[in-house]
Amino acid sequence: MSVLDLPRLWRPATHQALFRRILDVAARPGQIADLGDLLDGRPAALAALATFCDNTQTLADLTGTLSATDFAFLDVGKATVDKAGFILSVGTAAPDFTPRLGTLDTPEDGATLVIMVDSLTEGAALTLTGPGINGTATLAPKGLAPDWLTARARWCADFPMGVDLVLADATRLTVIPRTTKIGA
Amino acid sequence: MHPVDTMGQTREGAEYGFAFLDEDAKRELRRSIFKAVCIPGHQVPYASREMPIARGFGTGGMQLTLALLGPDDACKVIDQGADDSVNAANIRNFFALTCPGVTGTLRTEEASVIQTRHRIPELPLRADQILVFQVPYPDPLVVVEPNAAKRRRMHGRADYARLWVKLYEDMVAFDEITISHRYPTRINGHYIIDPSPIPRFDVPKLHQADCLYLFGAGREKRIYAVPPHTDAVPITFNDVTFAVENFRDKATGKRHCCRRCGADDSFLDEFLDDDGARVFQCSDAAYCDMRLERLEAAE
Amino acid sequence: MRPNREDWAAALAAADKGRVAALADRIRDRAQVDLLAPPREGLMLMQLRESVAGAAFHLGEIPMARVHLRLTAPEGVAEGGAALMSDDLALVTRLAILDAALVADLPEAPEIEALLAEGMAARAETQARRALSLDRTKVDFQLLSEEDE
Predict the structure, then answer these.
(1) Which uninterrupted H or E stretch holds B156?
(2) Residue B188's pLDDT is what?
(3) For B108-117, how does the pLDDT look when each residue is reduced to its tens digit (9 = 90+)?
């Protein structure tokens, strides 16, 4: 806008560009979106939250990395991990909670988990199948505790209920919707 | 084009008016689109906003498109396959007015976002294209269950017994399933969607496509999606095959061709010409024009 | 004399737009302004209470813009904000800057106060005019029961 300049991450134009890239990979699990040119050095996980959060949403930050300013700009309510619509966590910390899974009637209430990992390409390869994938896809996240996959399988066992994951390293992210089957 | 306030004065801070909707509305749409893609076929509720056209004229599709568009996009709008109908032309003009930078295009292959009413373009869409449907009635169960809460419960449990009974009654009464458009289609083995009033001819294009399909029902306030490479199967019985319009001449048994471009593989509109003769023409105007251009170039 | 702080934004919005903009931009250019929350502009539901049973109801959607910022000038630091029934985010941002400048008592304060006075006068005039035209539509009902008494 003309009177004051917002930092790039909080500009509407940035949110539009972020959303298109996130949507692109959400529709094609296994593909990775590079957000580097939109971030100005901020983490990709924060960019995912900036795209979706506002004062109608709730967030549980399990990492403690979000500053007061980040929270103010996200303009998002804080909630406990079992009630939050969005959860920010790190991949190395195994989950010890049950997020919102939605109900059969309202599966869209299942939480969106944004998990920060070391890298999306340098770990052991996982094989993905499901909607959005032509045959199979692979994803090799590094710094994602195996317990996450066990927990996610449990959370997503009763489709359409479940959670949707956003895995993010420093500048890139990928989406694993609840429909994706993960094999070793 | 900058947004203009009611006093007729151009305001500053014009980029906040990009894509007409306010940022909160777009963010809510984006959240709903995201969940719709993650739960293929599920009708995600959203707060359908007032648009400058009446509900029922494509406000659901417009809101989706506005939540998607960025200044680099090329946008195409079609109505029953045609770019030049009043509805399509005005929606395209609206996007040009409210989304500075977005180019309007008539060519399917040039568009990054295509908004459509009742057709899927003939040219197969690519992975970098999104097709946005204007949906009048999002719920295929509405013919068998009037109560919205009960329908939601049936969807969640994939309980479509009554829809099957409806199809069976069709078979008993007419020896065929009489649904010509809005054919109930099962997505990824769970939800059954109303694919909007596209003809049967277009239903197979939903199956294992390269592009993303998004559906917006403005009046009914629902968004749903068919992601790429997802099973989309029109529901039918084991011994009754799903058949699409074949445009075969009853007398000769030969398929009708487009009178303009000669296409024998497209969905055809049938009408009477000035002499009262029955003629057929591609419903997808861009496809027809493209074929004509190629034919002319080849000559 | 300054009116209450909650009336500043409304008063300044009624003052001359060009001078408000010029003054706010002058302060912005010589101070540091940090947004503390994303400027928001959009529709919100307006909730009112009806006068009989006191039940809450939604009158409808209204355009709303709000800005929250911190102004750091050599003479002082202050947080400022403005929320207005408007879709003009540029205006609301400028009102927030003036709000902070007045709280921080910057040297420009007298100029802001002058604009405030001008805006208050303009508002008072508008309100008086409205009250007058409303007054003409007032009807006195005489109840039948009153005649008996």
Answers:
(1) helix B148-156
(2) 97
(3) 999 999 999 9
